[in-house]
Specification:
single chain; about 120 residues; mainly beta; three-stranded antiparallel sheet; about 50% strand
Length: about 120
């Protein structure tokens, strides 16, 4: 964590004269916060706070290491694609020709009234 100090020199007056004070203010890097800049800011992860991840409701959460953890039946870089066999806005329905409902693991194709499943 980088702790950048800014010094402010102030001269103040009162009825008895002038006095001078110096104030040191610490400013943390963007990914750190806390009195000693020793905590990760929101959405920053790892011990060096160098991994940025913002959870997207319905698509993914962020692990303690800042990696995307896809929601159930979601895949892809941003977890915005349904896994094979799944469909619907939330990927909780079987895609066409996938069975059984709720499992969606077998693809069955109808050929002249008969089904071939793989």
């Amino acid at each position: 964590a980088t702790n950048q100090w800014t010094t402010h020199d102030l001269t103040l007056s009162n009825p008895y004269g002038y006095f001078r004070i110096k104030i040191k203010i610490s400013q943390c890097d963007l990914s750190f916060e806390g009195k000693g800049c020793n905590y990760c800011s929101d959405n920053y992860y790892t011990s060096t706070c160098d991994k940025y991840c913002v959870p997207v409701e319905g698509n993914y959460t962020c692990s303690s290491e800042g990696n995307k953890t896809c929601a159930e039946h979601k895949t892809g870089e941003n977890c915005d694609v349904c896994e094979e066999g799944w469909d619907g806005l939330d990927c909780m329905e079987c895609a066409d020709n996938y069975h059984p409902d709720g499992v969606c693991e077998k693809y069955c194709k109808s050929v002249q009234g008969n089904y071939t499943c793989s």
